[in-house]
Design goal:
The protein is mainly α. It contains 9 helices and 2 strands; from the N terminus they run H-H-H-H-H-H-E-E-H-H-H. It is 65% helix and 1% strand. The radius of gyration is 21 Å and the shape is globular.
């Protein structure tokens, strides 16, 4: 079975999961909104990415390969990222550790299958980002060989759509929201027993994903964008992670240990992406300027 066949099967499986999910909803069967919106996000993200690649008349099999690698990398990275970034404190008890001998062993070491138990655990968007970056780097080295940054320039449009769907899933699950607020759009998350309104930060993050998508799509449609390799990827990193860094100031900590830090885990993990985004934007603009100067000198 070719990669294209595997990806097609995967895509149709996602579509089937969406349809089945809606049937379950109509029959009042409990469904997991987060998982359903993950599936919808992956499917819609694939369509947007395919459109971005079609603009540059890329071979159809490229979109299949990129989607397959990105989806697998995202899911694996998101799960491992959550276990490492947000449950690292389970590795050792720092107060009683003597001679590198922990008081207890991380449950993921003694029961590694718990890594697959997403229902009992969680997923990390930063882990998903690391997973995508790793998988696309491997893909570029193995087959496409057009350039890692060039691929990411096309892929991030789809990631914006997927990210928006995932954040809406968080909203439907009444999770990862903000501090109490008296603003008129505050939401009372009654599912968690709250009686006060809180910042719906999931909606804020969903909106900045969609706004970033609109900006990137406009740039993608310009005729001169091919001169600025890395510009779209860089703007994506700033639009997603810089905004995430700011919004974290009004979000509740996901884990108790974060209260001991000046910045929470989401902000600390966003900093490398913000710096990388600034460098990519600078490099793209500088390279385009140098290329234009060389062209003018030659003429």
């Amino acid at each position: 079975m070719s990669t294209a066949d595997i990806v097609s099967f995967f895509a149709y499986s996602i579509l089937a999961a969406v349809i089945i999910g809606w049937f379950l909803l109509r029959n009042e069967v409990e469904i997991r909104w987060y998982g359903l919106l993950w599936a919808i996000g992956l499917f819609l993200g694939m369509l947007v990415m395919q459109r971005a690649l079609k603009i540059e008349q890329c071979p159809p099999e490229w979109s299949d390969q990129i989607f397959f690698y990105a989806a697998i990398g995202c899911i694996i990275g998101a799960r491992l990222g959550h276990c490492w970034f947000y449950e690292w404190h389970l590795n050792i008890n720092h107060e009683t550790m003597l001679g590198f001998t922990p008081q207890y062993i991380n449950p993921y070491i003694t029961h590694p299958l718990r890594l697959l138990d997403i229902q009992e655990g969680g997923l990390s968007s930063h882990g998903g980002a690391f997973g995508i970056i790793t998988s696309i780097w491997i893909l570029n080295k193995r087959t496409i060989k057009r350039g890692f940054i060039w691929i990411m320039d096309k892929l991030v449009l789809g990631i914006c759509v997927t990210g928006a769907c995932i954040r809406f899933g968080n909203f439907m699950n009444s999770e990862i929201y903000g501090n109490p607020t008296d603003l008129p759009w505050g939401v009372v998350f009654k599912h968690n027993g709250d009686t006060w309104a809180s910042h719906p930060t999931q909606i804020y993050e969903m909106l900045y994903c969609l706004i970033t998508l609109a900006i990137l799509w406009t740039l993608m449609r310009t005729k001169q964008i091919y001169k600025y390799v890395g510009l779209i990827f860089g703007i994506f990193l700033e639009g997603i992670f810089l905004t995430r860094f700011i919004i974290e100031f009004i979000k509740l900590d996901q884990e108790a240990f974060e209260s001991n830090f000046a910045l929470n885990m989401g902000q600390l993990l966003s900093i490398p992406f913000i710096i990388w985004g600034i460098w990519l934007i600078y490099r793209a603009l500088n390279n385009a300027k140098n290329s234009e100067q060389q062209l003018n000198s030659a003429t």
